[in-house]
Write the structure tokens for this entry.
Amino acid sequence: MEILYPDYLNNIILFNELEQEQLDCIKSKSTLYTYPRGSILFVEGQETNGTYIVLSGLIKVVKLHKEGREKTLAILRRGDILGEMTLFETTARSANAETMEESTVLYIPNADFKQLLLDIPQLALQVIGILADRLRQTDQQIQELLFLNARGRIICNLLHLAAGHGIIENNLIKISLRLTHAELANLAGVSRETVTKVLDDLKKDDLIRIKDRQLWLLNTDELYQQGN
């Protein structure tokens, strides 16, 4: 693990403009953890004391309703920051974070992370950019929930997944995540039955293809039209 540590940092967008001395400083203030699939990093209401940076794997951020329903707020991948809002205010965790596959994260106590942002301007600018992007994503989610029907929300989430986790093969886009209908329903804020119906309709219209739980987008232009 000690040998891989510097390579992990160099290959993360958040750190790729930093000098080795700065990377060493980050390393000295952080801890590397690897969690198996299904691990809980933190739960809603838990006291906050640090920020996570995803180095590998996938982590979902989930908001639970008191009746047992859940809404997946984000699926984080390599280079994403988790729990960053606690850098600027002392508050409890606002959602749960769970690994979807084996994941490695860098944990930095908030007091140390704040000092790193003061000492390394390039790092501060990168974090500001990530926060701005996160705000845009949240605004887009709100608009989709307010103005789109269930079919539109599902299509938009397929396009978001393609943008964040898509692989181009033979001029088609394959979503690398293997999500269940229930997981896609939690992302879109609809029922599992609705997801099943909409996906069946999209397959009949030759807009998507599903094989071995792998989802392919066959006509992104038409999907964009139907999702807006």
Notes: The chain has two domains: 9-145, 148-227. The radius of gyration is 19 Å.
